[in-house]
Amino acid sequence: MITLYHAPQSRSARPKWLLEEAGATYDVVRVDLSKQEHKSAEHLRRHPHGQVPVLVDGDLALIESAAICLHLADRFPHAKLAPALGSPERGRYYQWMVYAIATLEAPIVDIFMNTVQLPEAQRSAEKVAAARTQFAAIGRVLSDALGAHPYLLGADFSAADIMVGSTLAWGSFMGLLDDSPVLAAYVERLTQRPAFQRAQAD
C-alpha cells in the first residue's frame, strides 16, 4: 500500500498529481501545517526536517518531491510518465526533473517570501527585483524548450511536466507568466488535465 503524507498547496501536490496520472491506489494522510502537525514528534520520525511530502511504499519511505516522483514514474510503467532507460529522452527527462528544483523554484520562492509570506517589515524589494530578473531568463529557456510542443519532451506528457508545471503554476499565481504566453498556455494545458484536477480536489 502507498501512503502519501500531504498538505494542500505544498510540494506534496506533485506526487499526488502523479499518483492520479498513474491511476494508482493510495491513501492520503493530511498534515495540517497551520496546526504545526508537520513539526510533531510523530511526523519528525517520518521526515527529519518536518516537511511534506513523505511517501511510504511498503517498506520504503521517501522524502523530497522530485525523488518521490522519479520513484513513482518507474513504479507505474504502464502510465508512461518516464521515457525508456538509456534513451536521449530519458536524459532530457532527468534534466527537467532536476531543473524544476535546482533552477526554477528558487526565484519563485524568493518572490513569494518577499511579497506574500514574510511580514512587510522583513520583505526586500531588491530581492524581488533580482528574482524577477532571474525568473525572466529561466522563462525564456523553458519557452524555447517547449517551442510549439505541448510538453517538455515533445508530444509525450511525463513526470517532468508535473515537476516543472506545478512550479510554474505557483509562479502564475503571482503573475509571473503574464508576459509569457507560451508558459501561460503550457500551465493552462496542464491544469486542465483530469488527473491534475482530481489531485487538487482535496
In words, what does this structure look like?
This protein is an alpha+beta fold. It contains eight helices and four strands; from the N terminus they run βαβαββαααααα. A four-stranded mixed beta sheet has the order 2-1-3-4, with helices on one face. Strand 3 and strand 4 (60-63) form a beta hairpin. Helix 4 runs antiparallel to helix 5, helix 4 (88-117) runs parallel beside helix 6 and helix 6 (159-173) crosses helix 7 (181-191). It is globular.
Characteristic terms for this protein:
about 10% strand, 8 helices, alpha+beta, globular, 4-stranded mixed beta sheet, about 200 residues
Largest sheet: 4 strands, mixed
Number of strands: 4
Biggest sheet, strands in spatial order? Answer: 2-1-3-4
Total helices: the number is: 8
| Low-confidence blocks of residues | none
Order of helices and strands: EHEHEEHHHHHH
Mean pLDDT: 97
SSE inventory with pairings:
Blueprint: E1 2-6, H1 13-22, E2 26-30, H2 41-46, E3 54-57, E4 60-63, H3 65-75, H4 88-117, H5 125-146, H6 159-173, H7 181-191, H8 194-200
Parallel strand pairs: 1-2
Antiparallel strand pairs: 1-3, 3-4
Give the gist of this structure.
This protein is α+β, with helices and mostly antiparallel strands and 202 residues long. The protein has helices at residues 13-22, 41-46, 65-75, 88-117, 125-146, 159-173, 181-191, 194-200, and strands at residues 2-6, 26-30, 54-57, 60-63.
